[in-house]
What does this fold into?
Amino acid sequence: VKQNLSTIFREDKTIRILDDNGKKIVETSDGIKFFLDSMHPGNTIIETYVRNIHNINSNHDYSGQIIIDVGAECGDTPLYYANKGAKVYAFEPIPEHFDAMLKNIELNPHLSERIIPINSGIGKDGNLTFYQSQSGIVGNTSFVTNLHGGDAKKITAKCYSIKSVLEEFKIEHVDLLKMDCKGCETFLTKEDLEKIYSIKIEYFSSFENKNTLQDML
It folds into this structure.
């Protein structure tokens, strides 16, 4: 017996796999596309587009709002917020992640004009050493602590403090600062917060990172 697919699947949770000349593409229920080899299934799809963990308020209108996305990785969150109408400054220091983000943004031309991809990190000013997994696009990266031991791949990337970002990119006000950067959030200052309306942080704790959650608060 043939059934209407909408009676079997929840439309807002349905993910499609497409084939474009031998290239696999993942499409979300919102029509946002990712190259399968340029994303992380767990983070990109499950967290962002199925569990919807970046949705702070379902009634909030992001149209025309300014978002700074720290730890933009393969572009999942920049595309998520751009699809809601926001202008997104997407910071990603790791070359493999940044290249994947560019590919995925290009795959969504109707959203690309709302995203400014920047191949840099956030935390403090200077060229900083990041510790990265040898596995390439999959793996946590940080300049605050080495999560990968002696096998860590090291890369050097330009970084900004939030103060420098606001000055260089002439940003007068930030509606949302999203941070997923394995420790860089501990470099936020009270001065930074003066121009930021709201913050969404994935707080990172480790033995090497001496800043506590209470320090953050």
In short: The longest helix spans residues 95-106.
